[in-house]
Amino acid sequence: xxxxxxxxxxxxxxxxxxxxxxxxxxxxxxxxxxxxxxxxxxxxxxxxxxxxxxxxxxxxxxxxxxxxxxxxxxxxxxxxxxxxxxxxxxxxxxxxxxxxxxxxxxxxxxxxxxxxxxxxxxxxxxxxxxxxxxxxxxxxxxxxxxxxxxxxxxxxxxxxxxxxxxxxxxxxxxxxxxxxxxxxxxxxxxxxxxxxxxxxxxxxxxxxxxxxxxxxxxxxxxxxxxxxxxxxxxxxxxxxxxxxxxxxxxxxxxxxxxxxxxxxxxxxxxxxxxxx
Length: 276
Fold this sequence. Notes:
- The chain has helices at 4-17, 45-49, 128-135, 146-153, 156-159, 163-168, 181-187, 201-220, and strands at residues 23-28, 36-37, 54-60, 63-68, 72-75, 79-84, 96-100, 105-110, 114-119, 258-262, 265-269.
- By secondary structure, it is α+β, with helices and mostly antiparallel strands.
- The protein has a 5-stranded mixed β-sheet with strand order 2-9-5-4-3. Strands 1-7-8-6 form a 4-stranded antiparallel β-sheet. A two-stranded antiparallel sheet has the order 10-11.
- The longest helix has 20 residues, at 201-220.
């Protein structure tokens, strides 16, 4: 799933690979998907995409925004965006396929759910998730400082939540989802089920520090090893708490990493390092 590290990685790879290329043909909704989200009628995308030049790509939270000279293409969480060099085969089933002027291709495929939105300009696209992701500071920015984070955890309604619910819901930190929070909490020695109200000041600081440091490391290694980049390669960041480590010893203390279902998704944690 696209979260902050993957969105930033893919945006950078787009800029280094296909920036300046022209879209000569586009195929939209070739393989209809019940949970593929479009802006308006996807059949109208061809008019916006064909003949357009790719100017740049930017990441906002877990979204990748591709600016064209005549439109915007926005890729959301759940959408796999892949680059295929000349001669490489694109997937047979896809929700979007872009053919570029150097005979390379870009495909967008969706398994569970995902957004592929195309529109002329930002004013035309009224989407609260996109709006919030653009307005709120990235955890990797200077604006996201300790004072800002303390304001996020201070409201009474937030204190009633589990730490997982605080981090991964209501777009409090856009792009920080259930995937990246596992290693963040492990680094901060906090259990995902712990209530925000039970955290001591030092734990709140350690959580803030872990958000900044873990996300930075994930970005520096081009995303997590559980996710793929623009070229279909796994990221270089080795996850400590994920599907890759479940039932294996915690590298810090040797306790077996547990997996449980909680709050609409899986959590991975070490009982010794992250006591309830």
